[in-house]
Amino acid sequence: MLEKFNLQEFISAFVVLFAIIDVIGSIPIFMRLRSCGKSIHPEKGAIASFAVFMIFLYLGEALLDLFGIDISSFAIAGSLIIFVIATEMILDIEIFKTAPNTPNDATIVPVAFPLIAGAGALTTLLSIRSQYALINVLLAIFCNIIIVYVVLKLTEKISKFLGAGTIYVLQKIFGIILLAISVKLFITNVSLLIAGH
Q1: Would residue 166 count as lying in a domain?
Q2: Is residue 33 one of the residues assigned to a domain?
Q3: Which domain holds residue 156?
Q4: Contacts within 8 Å (CB) and 24+ apart, 113-118
Q5: Confidence at residue 101, expressed as pLDDT on a 0 to 100 scale
Q6: How much of the chain exceeds pLDDT 90, in percent?
Q7: pLDDT given at position 133
Q8: Count of domains in the chain?
Q9: Is 115 within 8 Å of 50 (Cβ atoms)?
Q10: Which of 1, 110, 152, 180 is the most exposed place for a label (fewest CB within 10 A)?
């Protein structure tokens, strides 16, 4: 497997996943959850996110087949979710709302899923899995999970270091990147569906 390692593929997969996970842009959300009395455990959050990614990486297609859904249809649905998330980030609006009766521990829901390993990230994972060698995708996931752990562990310090203005700008930048990713995913997979019929 190691002989298939390709630095360019690894970097591409890493950057795409980093943009879609957008853990830096989620710092204000983590801060808000904690200020509302919700607890977030960095180790548990990182492990849970990694587990979701691994399950979907190896069983994603089988799960989709079970429900009679093809990858292109799932990718189109995911692209729409990415589009909504990007719209939230760019326009400062809230579409996905947290219910008031959610559990006090926010580590699994909503942090691990859907903030980190959400539908958009899982769709993107399937997409890059079909383009890149498995070793490069696995390393990209692992490196992103390390960053997720560090950010969850140092949320308050990172927030103070970067400052509200920098976080706001990063959120806009990653929002535009996500918007572009969503458009590309949508167009590519609609084309595949049309070509297949």
Answers
A1: yes
A2: no
A3: 7-21+41-96+103-196
A4: 113/48, 113/49, 113/52, 115/26, 115/29, 116/21, 116/23, 116/26, 116/45, 116/49, 116/148, 117/21, 117/48, 117/49, 117/52, 117/53, 117/56, 118/81, 118/85
A5: 62
A6: 32
A7: 92
A8: 1
A9: no
A10: 1
